[in-house]
Amino acid sequence: MFEGAITHQDFAGHKGTIRTGDVQWMTAGRGIVHSEMPAGDGVSEGLQLWINLSSKDKMIEPRYQELERKDISRAETEDGVEARVIAGEAFGVASPVYTRTPIMYVDFTMRPGSRLHQPVPEGWNAFVYVVDGEGVFGRETATAHHCLVLGSGDGVSVWNRSARPLRFVLAAGQPLGEPVVQHGPFVMNSHAEIQQAMEDYSYGKNGFERAGQWSSSA
């Protein structure tokens, strides 16, 4: 959460509130029905990223990992670059979040004039999302709410040439090399698996047994 708070709950009985700076890492697995609603007055702003599971993990039991702001791994350079490591590793600091495939998910804040080169393993898919400010990423300039998909190389070089702080998120992951078929909230490896997932949800089976009787109170 960048700002504000949201309440969440699901049909398995999990519920809570995610506040500014907190992280929720949800693994949907074989399926989960949940709700999210802004908590309190004012603006609620956050970033939600969906990460595909490999075919061998698609039918695992759902699970949550929640980190309060104070528990997120942090590192800072003398040049004025701060990293909040949500998943993976940066500056020699590792996140406590368990991911089923190798992933890097880092929230960077750079002071004016600072520079950064963040390595990304060769062959990984990667992108940058600018949260606030303006920066130079390689040869491209990007401002708030813009996304840059990174090409091949050993990482990304960033320069905050502006007079205000730059905040951006770097997300990268090892490609699964598997077919992807998506329909609504369902992501599987074939059309047949999508049809099966939709049937399971409709008839309340294979993980969705509680879906029909549940309604959110958020």
UniProtKB/TrEMBL annotation:
Pfam families: Pirin, Pirin_C. Residues 105-207 form the Pirin C-terminal domain. InterPro entries: Pirin, Pirin_C_dom, Pirin_N_dom, RmlC-like_jellyroll, RmlC_Cupin_sf. It comes from the Eukaryota. Residues 1-51 form the Pirin N-terminal domain. Belongs to the pirin family. This is Pirin-like protein.
